[in-house]
Amino acid sequence: MPKTKAKRPEPVHVTLKVFGALRDMHRQSQESVALRDEHTVRGLLVSIHASSPELAQRIEAGLSDGYLSCLLNGRNVRFLQNLDTVLTDGDTVAFLPPIGGG
C-alpha cells in the first residue's frame, strides 16, 4: 500500500498592524503574513519571531505586562481566547499601546 503524505492545512493570510514604538522598530505599519502551521495569535507571534525576533520579544513582553493590546478585527483578544484565538483568512491583527490624551 503506497504511503500518502499528510495534507498540510492551507496557509491563512492575515494583515499585521503595529503602532507606536513598534511601528518605528518594524519600519512599517502593516504587512501581510502567511501562517502555515498554527492559525492562532500565538502562531502569528511565532511567525513574527522568525522574521523579527526583537519585535516579537517587545510584543510578547508588552502583552504579558499588560502594556500592549492585541486586537483581532477591532476586538481585544483578551475577551476572546487570548493568544489561542483562532485566525482566519483575511483577518487583521493589530498590536497597539494604550492611547493617552485628554
Question: Can you give a write-up of this model?
Answer:
This protein has 102 residues and is an alpha+beta fold. It has one domain: Ubiquitin-like (UB roll), CATH 3.10.20. The chain is globular.
State the fourth-level CATH superfamily: Beta-grasp domain
In N-to-C order, the SSE pattern is EHEHHEEE
**Architecture, CATH level 2?**
Roll
Overall radius of gyration: 15 Å
Q: How many strands in all?
A: 5
Residue fraction in strands: 15-25%
* Rough outline: globular
Give the termini distance in whole angstroms.
70 Å
Domain count: the total is: 1
Examine the coordinates and then state which fold CATH places here, giving the name of the CATH topology.
Ubiquitin-like (UB roll)
Structural class, judged by helices and strands? alpha+beta
* Widest sheet, order of strands: 2-1-5-3-4
Q: How many helices in DSSP terms? A: 3
Q: Average pLDDT value? A: 91
Largest sheet: 5 strands, mixed
Sequence-ordered SSE layout with sheet pairings:
Blueprint lengths: L11 E7 L2 H6 L3 E6 L5 H11 L1 H13 L3 E4 L2 E2 L15 E5 L6
Parallel strand pairs: 1-5
Antiparallel strand pairs: 1-2, 3-4, 3-5
Helix pairs in contact: 2-3
Protein traits:
5 strands, 102 residues, 3 helices
Quick structural gist:
This protein is of the alpha+beta class. It has helices at about 20-25, 40-50, 55-65; strands at about 10-20, 30-35, 70, 75, 90-95.
